[in-house]
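okkk here we go again. third time trying to get the NAP bound version out, last two times i messed up the smiles copy paste (missing a bracket lol). double checked this time i swear
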Amino acid sequence: MASKTVLITGATSGIGAHTARLLLERGHRVVVTGRNESKLKLFLEDAGHPDRVLGLVSDAADWEATESAVTRTVEHFGALDAAVANAGFMTGDSIGDGDPTRWSPMVLTNVLGPALLAHAALPHLEATGGRLVLLGSVAGLKNSPGNLYSATKWATTGLAENLRLLATARGVGVTLINPGMIDTPFWEGVSVPPFALPPQPIAEAICFALDQPAGVDLNTLTIRPMGQPA
Ligand SMILES: NC(=O)c1ccc[n+]([C@@H]2O[C@H](COP(=O)([O-])OP(=O)(O)OC[C@H]3O[C@@H](n4cnc5c(N)ncnc54)[C@H](OP(=O)(O)O)[C@@H]3O)[C@@H](O)[C@H]2O)c1
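finally!!
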């Protein structure tokens, strides 16, 4: 793929970090965001390629921070070819007996975040004929009892198609990537079953979406580990 500038939200660990590393290895320019400054610093030290990477402390659930991240990307690298709405997390509790005071940041990050990124990035992606990638989940295709995280990912499924309808008329592609269980810090404190995949196949799928030729809009990829029952 020709050298591109890619902004990835929540890329200091897991799928986002692996995608950023893969893109850097392949000669692209990458902007990574995260809320935690020390995690961001560690990622930047480890990733190398300081001439082609920019790290920004930025909350994906916040409009001003998101707008600023997109503006700084374009100022720093001259254009934006792709934006990856990857930031997301799961509180892991249930609507039935969970702690409602923990839910707002999850809903705002997982649902509002991709919409904010789309709004900020679309004019720049239109200028480059670029692509928006959203990280959904198998949890956004299947129901499970009392699972608010799953409902946020159902929202991502709907948002991706609504954005596709908007963006295709402007020459911008939209790809929804639905991972199954991936062994990342997302599952911190939970024992991950042996069939869980490492983040690399999802990072490769994101690169594949970004590598589509002009005129091709690749819309949905669902990637489960072999053996995942749901
Ligand atoms: N792992 C799985 O099994 C799985 C399966 C399906 C879908 N997904 C989805 O894949 C995406 C990436 O997950 P992952 O497994 O790579 O998780 P992860 O390893 O926990 O990484 C999440 C990243 O997002 C950042 N982040 C979280 N909230 C943020 C916010 N409001 N603003 C900016 N950055 C934020 C985190 O850094 P800070 O905490 O420093 O902000 C971190 O860099 C998520 O959308 C997740 O829902 C994961």
